[in-house]
Amino acid sequence: FSLKKILVPTRGGIETEVVQIACSIAKVNKAEVKAVNIIDVPFSLPLEPNVPFPVYTPLHRRSLLAEAILKRAQAIGGEFGVQVNTEIIKSRSIAKTILELVKEENIDLVVLGEKIGPDHKGLGKITEEVLENATCRVWVCGNVDSNSVKNSGSQ
């Protein structure tokens, strides 16, 4: 079993640990890491990849957040001595986009982050779809949602 390409879909909040895990695996295996941030675009808006979202809209703010998340992923890669390639992708379906990337780019491992805790029962829809349909290995890294823990402890 050989790992040459690792995909890390990021979404905000828990990606630091997930990117660290992916970079650690990449360093040991001399693998490439690609971090992507997939922006879920409603059907009412165009999907043109090079057309920016209108300024001062939620999707524009989301694209700025995506840029910051991916810059952080590259910095984490630098800490591990691993180059992290990044891409922001506009999509109608996050899970389908992950699965397409797996096939198109011959990905060997997808590393997903998933919030766990009292407020999060089971896996999310995206994680379940990727686990069921991926043609490569998928690692799911659980991260306890600190808000859930605080809220459940005060009951």
**Global Rg:** 16 Å
Indicate the low-confidence ranges by residue numbers: 148-155
**Sheet with most strands: strand arrangement:** 3-2-1-4-5
The assigned structural class equals alpha/beta
User: What is the helix fraction of residues, given as a range?
Assistant: 40-55%
- Continuous helix count: 5
Give the averaged pLDDT, no decimals: 87
Helix and strand sequence: EHEHEHEHEH
Strand content: 25-35%
For the biggest sheet, the summary is:
5 strands, parallel
End-to-end separation: 47 Å
Shape: globular
The number of distinct β-strands equals: 5
Model description:
This protein has a five-stranded parallel β-sheet, with helices on both faces. Strand 1 (5-10), helix 1 (15-29) and strand 2 form a beta-alpha-beta unit. The N and C termini lie far apart (47 Å). It has helices at 15-29, 58-80, 94-104, 125-133, 146-153, and strands at 5-10, 32-40, 84-91, 109-116, 137-144. The protein is α/β, with parallel strands linked by helices. The protein is built from five helices and five strands.
Salient structural properties:
155 residues, alpha/beta, globular, disordered C terminus
Describe how the helices and strands are arranged:
Elements lengths: L4 E6 L4 H15 L2 E9 L17 H23 L3 E8 L2 H11 L4 E8 L8 H9 L3 E8 L1 H8 L2
Parallel strand pairs: 1-2, 1-4, 2-3, 4-5
Structure at a glance:
With 155 residues, the chain is an alpha/beta fold. The chain has helices spanning 15-29, 58-80, 94-104, 125-133, 146-153; strands spanning 5-10, 32-40, 84-91, 109-116, 137-144. Helix 1 packs parallel to helix 2 and helix 3 runs parallel beside helix 4 (125-133).
